[in-house]
Amino acid sequence: MDSENELNDNLNDAAEETHESFNPNSFIGTLSVAVVLCLVCSLVVSVAAVALRPIQQRNQENKMKRNVLIAAGLWDPETSTDQDIPEMFKSIETVAVNLPGRAEDAPIPGTLNEEVDLNTYNQVKAAKDPHQSIFIADEDVDDIAGIKRRETVGLAYLVNDSSGKLETVVVPIYGKGLWSTLYGYIALEADCRTVRGITFYQHGETPGLGGEVDNPKWKAQWVGKEIISADGVPDLKVTKPGNATADNQVDGLSGATITSSGVERTVRYWLGEDAYGPFLDRIREQ
C-alpha cells in the first residue's frame, strides 16, 4: 500500500513539474502555441486546396465552354445552365491549331497539331511560357493587339449541325484595351467571314465605358457583320458611335475610344495572317 501511495505521489509531482515547466504565458509557451496553430492551419488549408482543386478545374472548364457557347449563339441566358453544357458541347469539336512560328522547322501555319493534349492544354498559360510562345513585339511583326508574346498553338472550336456539317468556327482572342487585356471569343459562320457572335469574359476596363464590351446590346450588333474580305484579309472597322453603316463596320463604345480601338485591333490580329488566318483559309478552301 505504501509503495502504491509513493508511486501516485511521484506521478503527481511529475505532473506538477510539467505544468510548472510549461507556462503558456511565457515567451516559449506563446511561441509553441503559435507554431502548433500554424501547423494545424497549414494542414487544413493544404487538405482543403487538394480537395477543392477538381471542383475549381471543373468550374474553369465550364466557364470556358459557356463562353464558347455564348459566342456561337447557342447559350440562352434565360434557360441554359451549367448542367446543360456537356450535352450542348457534344456538337462541338475542339482542335489544336499550329499558329505561325519563327523557327525554320516550325509546323505549317493553320494545320492541326495532334500532339497537344486537349484536356490539359491552357492557351493563356502557354502564351506566357517562352517554350510554348514567341515574342512578337519587334520589327518583324506588327503587334497590333499589344500582347508582346503569342502562343504557337491555339485552340479552335468547330460547331457542327445535326448532320455533321460545319456551322460555326469559334476562336479565342485577347488584346489590350485602355486599362487591361481583354480576353474573349469570336465566332464566325462556316464561310469564315461573317460574325456569328462575340463575347469577352475577362477584362479590367472602366465600368459604364470600356466595360460595356460586356453589354449584350453592343455585342448583338456584331452578328451578321462581314469582317473578313473575299481574299481572307480582316476588314473590320469599329467606328464612332452611330457611324457604322457598312457591313464590315461596328459602332464603337460611347466614351471609350481606346477600348473600342483595342477591340478592333484584337479581332484583326487574331483573324489575320499572324494568328488564325491560315487556319481559316484552309476551312474556306474545303
From TrEMBL:
Compartments in which it is found: Cell membrane
- Transmembrane parts of this sequence: 27-55
Q: Tell me the residues on which FMN phosphoryl threonine occurs.
A: T257
Query: What membrane topology does this protein have?
Result: Single-pass membrane protein
Reactions catalysed: a ubiquinone + n Na(+)(in) + NADH + H(+) = a ubiquinol + n Na(+)(out) + NAD(+)
EC class, as a word, reads translocase
Per its database record, what is this protein's job? NQR complex catalyzes the reduction of ubiquinone-1 to ubiquinol by two successive reactions, coupled with the transport of Na(+) ions from the cytoplasm to the periplasm. NqrA to NqrE are probably involved in the second step, the conversion of ubisemiquinone to ubiquinol.
Q: What is this protein called?
A: Na(+)-translocating NADH-quinone reductase subunit C
User: Which organism does this record belong to?
Assistant: Thalassoglobus neptunius
